[in-house]
Amino acid sequence: PSGAGGSAMASSSGTDVIQVTNVSPSASSEQMRTLFGFLGKIEELRLFPPDDSPLPVSSRVCFVKFHDPDSAVVAQHLTNTVFVDRALIVVPYAEDD
């Protein structure tokens, strides 16, 4: 077999940013930072709409930029984790466009 080792999959996404959808409206950016902070150092975290948004929100989207791309790979395993009252969906987010 011509396997290139276990690192081939990790580097294929090549991004240190994840997009988290189906985030509960009652989740705060601080809670998201705590949850994903277990996986590695967070460079930046953005939650849309923001915590102080006056608009009624049915679901939020969170973007997390990690210091290490490996953390973004690991974070994808949190897909289907129930956080507050719904299952999170975590996908890699390519930021170069």
TrEMBL record:
Pfam families: RRM_1. Transmembrane segments: none annotated. Keywords: RNA-binding. This is RRM domain-containing protein. GO terms for cellular component: nucleoplasm. GO terms for molecular function: RNA binding. InterPro entries: Nucleotide-bd_a/b_plait_sf, RBD_domain_sf, RRM_dom. Residues 16-96 form the RRM domain.
